[in-house]
UniProtKB/TrEMBL annotation:
Key enzyme of fatty acid beta-oxidation. Able to isomerize both 3-cis (3Z) and 3-trans (3E) double bonds into the 2-trans (2E) form in a range of enoyl-CoA species, with a preference for (3Z)-enoyl-CoAs over (3E)-enoyl-CoAs. The catalytic efficiency of this enzyme is not affected by the fatty acyl chain length. One of its GO terms (molecular function) is delta(3)-delta(2)-enoyl-CoA isomerase activity. This is Enoyl-CoA delta isomerase 1, mitochondrial. It is an enzyme of class 5 (isomerase). It is found in: Mitochondrion matrix. GO terms for cellular component: mitochondrial matrix. SUPFAM superfamilies: ClpP/crotonase (SSF52096). GO terms for biological process: fatty acid beta-oxidation. It catalyses: (2E)-tetradecenoyl-CoA = (3Z)-tetradecenoyl-CoA; (3Z)-decenoyl-CoA = (2E)-decenoyl-CoA; a (3E)-enoyl-CoA = a 4-saturated (2E)-enoyl-CoA; (3Z)-dodecenoyl-CoA = (2E)-dodecenoyl-CoA. It comes from Ursus maritimus (Polar bear).
Amino acid sequence: MALTVGLRPLTRALLRPWARVPGAALGRPAAGSGDGVRCFGSPRVLVEPDPAAVGVAVMKMRNPPVNSLSLEFLTELLISLEKLENDKTFRGIIITSDCPGIFSAGLDLLEMYGRDPAHCAEYWKAVQELWLRVYLSNLVVIGAINGISPAGGCLLSLSCDYRVLANNPKYAIGLNETLLGIIAPFWFKDVLVNTIGHRAAERALQLGFLFPPSDALQVGIVDQVVPEDQVQSTARSVMAQWLAIPDHARQLTKNLVRKPTADRLLQQRDADIQNFVRFISRDSIQKSLHVYLEKLKQKKG
Ligand SMILES: CCCCC/C=C/C(=O)SCCNC(=O)CCNC(=O)[C@H](O)C(C)(C)COP(=O)(O)OP(=O)(O)OC[C@H]1O[C@@H](n2cnc3c(N)ncnc32)[C@H](O)[C@@H]1OP(=O)(O)O
């Protein structure tokens, strides 16, 4: 699925040839990576083929301080995902974070606060695109969740095929939008319902639950909770199990299961964008975002 056309100059500008990862220009071995292991990336996304697992790439999110999903970051993630999808040497991706303690703080609030409708529309299009790209990926996508993962970070995790969460009580995960005075869109809701069931999702969404690892495992929002230093190795071994399945059969099955949910958005993407722009532009919502952003600042003392 190609990136949607109609991206504005800012986003198109980000589609420039990639920034070189030091010592690892596109297609050439990264320094110290051994022969034939190529690593590529962009300022905020590092993609390293896993030297221990043929056909597996580790995608590290590195948009400090909190991997908030800004428009630039979303665009770089989309470019990396598209490149991996198009490179037939890859069969699986492990998505993880390079920001200590944070998987992703979710959507970048500054992309939705005090922004004009045209920007909000462009931003939301990119949010939709990231979800569709991950959720419908032909690759095996495993979330190695090594930090807190609220809202959009939780959506990214839920869009993976499998979720491994580090057993650190600070690393809560959930769709906490109501705590900000906003709401999760229907397709966020759909993915949560598909994962943890209707009643658990209804409760979690209304109360903005952020589940600590033990509760996240119990409710099923993650598949495994392991010691922090075993997240990556566990993700690798799960990847090996999934890659033992013939790709074509697995991909057709994934599509069979996920297409109805994705279609609900695909059939109304523009309406969803317009709904988002109308909702986020409301004075009351802007006020909620302002209060929440102030709280984040005050928290720092
Ligand atoms: C229809 C409307 C949309 C519906 C869908 C919405 C989905 C979303 O994802 S909304 C975003 C939800 N995210 C959150 O509620 C998380 C908010 N952040 C936090 O709770 C914390 O920052 C943390 C637990 C993720 C990390 O805490 P800590 O390590 O203490 O770091 P700080 O809180 O000091 O944050 C550092 C820095 O980053 C800014 N920031 C944090 N989160 C976001 C964000 N989501 N968007 C933009 N900026 C964020 C924070 O304000 C600090 O900024 P500075 O003060 O300038 O350093």
